Amino acid sequence: MNNRRFVIYGAGAVGGGLGALLTQAGHEVVLVARGPHLDALRSGGLKLVTPNGAETIPVVAVASPREVSMSADDAVLLTMKGNDTESALRELEAVAHPDTPVVCVQNGVANERAALRHFPNVYGVWTMFPVIHLQPGVVQLRTWPTPAILDIGRYSSGIDENAEMIATAIESTGCRSTPRPDIMCWKYEKLLTNLVNAVDAIAEPGRSAMQIIAQARAEGERVLAAAGIEVVANEEVQLRLGDFLSQTARVKGAGMAGSSSWQSVARGTGSIEADYLNGEIVLLARLHGVTAPINEFVRRVANDFVRDGRAPNSMSDTDLRAAFDIAMARDGGRRA
């Protein structure tokens, strides 16, 4: 059990950072990446930047799980955006052992359910990992000396030997990880936090952006309550975080929060994760007979923004407000 190899599928910001830390801690790691980032990892290793300086870490990097001789001793950590999860799972299923632990180190709450269609041993991770990836081959950690909090639990509930083993491996990197039987309660809480991401990616910091973010979260809370979904209490979250976020360094030019969605837009990936964050609230609202016009506005405007190929934070506060007011008038929603 302790000899498991970690195959990190989607080794960008979170995956690259965690892969580098696990490698430094002596674990066997394979990174699955793509494009110029993969080329950089293969040719020069991964440059890990921390407040203490920079270190280049030799890594094993491949373009696909098909290039890895997978075995029952592997654990796969999914670290791609939710948009790419389903295609990744289909590719993984073709080569991985059926009992492979599949660990969703991802935002959103749809990845675990998708993985369970393909693999029986699925785990969710409450991911608090402030990390920036804007250049091929480079990952910058924003908190130190604790890079991340990555609590883990079996999906849909429970703790088992795999969860405990993976938590121990993560702890060996200097990150924090606690096995939790109620991991999805924590992940739904993180979903509410991530409702900021799309606005952070597209809009200039301003009054309208902050109002819409606050309304999107409040609407998300109402929808989760209507759906009967339990969310961990804010007091428990704050206790778990402690002073962790106070250690987070801002990155110049990285939007309001330097979110993963902002980074996707900044790198020109052509996609944004809004369908699996704000869109999850919209989906739940439709399933349970309530409405979520604010999160639907954010989802739509973010997708339109990315389709137009615009630069991050290039929507002015005035334009955001105008678009929002039109959408709310059309949909019968409430102003932020």
Helix content: 40-55%
How would a crystallographer describe the biggest sheet? Answer: 7 strands, mixed
The termini sit apart by: 51 Å
Report the count of strand segments: 11
What oligomeric assembly is this protein in? Answer: single chain
Q: What structural class do the secondary elements suggest?
A: alpha/beta
Look at the structure and give the mean pLDDT. 94
* Rg: 19 Å
CATH architecture of the largest domain: 3-Layer(aba) Sandwich
What count of domains describes the coordinates? 2
Report on this structure:
The protein has 336 residues and is α/β, with parallel strands linked by helices. It has two domains: 5-181, NAD(P)-binding Rossmann-like Domain (Rossmann fold), CATH 3.40.50; 187-331, N-(1-d-carboxylethyl)-l-norvaline Dehydrogenase, domain 2, CATH 1.10.1040. It contains 13 helices and eleven strands. Strands 5-2-1-6-7-8-11 form a seven-stranded mixed beta sheet. Strands 4-3-10-9 form a four-stranded mixed beta sheet. The longest helix has 20 residues, at 207-226. The chain is globular, with a radius of gyration of 19 Å. The model has no long low-confidence stretch (mean pLDDT 94).
Please name the defining characteristics of this protein:
N-(1-d-carboxylethyl)-l-norvaline Dehydrogenase, domain 2, four-stranded mixed sheet, 336 residues, 11 strands, Rossmann fold
